Amino acid sequence: MSHFAKIDNNNLVTEVVVAEQEFVNSGALGDTFRWVQTSYNNNFRKNFAGVGDTYDKTKDAFIAVKPFPSWTLNETTCLWEAPTAYPDEGKKYDWNEDTTTWNEVVPTAAIPQIPPIDYPDDGNDYNWNEDTTAWVEII
């Protein structure tokens, strides 16, 4: 099985399907010239097609929607690139278009702590009380 992208009159991808080449060629999906094979492994046509992407016939490549106005297209890979490289510090970052910089994502929720005392095994229900560091029976 192969993946095929349906291209509209503006070269926009409107659908991606898995099908045999013979099935696409049969016309069962409509005009055969509207279907362009895409590679899930990016073996050809640069990138796997997604709905909303553009197919550039000249580059023979699928190009995703531009994520931010400041980003530019890498003509070799047909991928969008930020004006500054993603930090290589092992942390998670989000793009800030207003400042055209990467901002570190800081977790906002505390990670729940595992109580240091085993849950009582007497058949009753308990809640952990962080203030007293003890299990409190639910009555």
Report on this model:
This protein has 139 residues and is mostly beta strands. It has a domain of 64 residues. 4% of the residues lie in helices and 31% in strands. It is built from 1 helix and 11 strands; from the N terminus they run E-E-H-E-E-E-E-E-E-E-E-E. It has a 3-stranded antiparallel beta sheet. A hairpin with a 4-residue loop joins strand 10 and strand 11. It is elongated, with a radius of gyration of 26 Å.
Q: What would the keywords be for this entry?
A:
139 residues, elongated, 11 strands, mainly beta, two-stranded antiparallel sheet, 3-stranded antiparallel β-sheet
Please render the helix and strand layout as text.
Elements: E1 2-7, E2 13-19, H1 21-25, E3 35-38, E4 54-56, E5 61-63, E6 72-73, E7 80-81, E8 93-96, E9 101-104, E10 126-129, E11 134-137
Antiparallel strand pairs: 1-2, 1-3, 4-5, 6-7, 8-9, 10-11
Brief account:
By secondary structure, the chain is mostly beta strands. Helices cover 4% and strands 31% of the residues. The protein has a 3-stranded antiparallel sheet with strand order 2-1-3.
Number of beta-strand segments: 11
* H-E order: EEHEEEEEEEEE
**Multimerization state:** single chain
Average pLDDT reading: 92
Total helical elements:
1
- Strand content is 25-35%
Shape: elongated
- Head-to-tail CA distance between termini: 60 Å
Low-confidence stretches: none
The biggest beta sheet, please?
3 strands, antiparallel
- Lateral strand order in the biggest sheet: 2-1-3
Which class of secondary structure composition applies to the elements? mainly beta
Helix content: under 10%
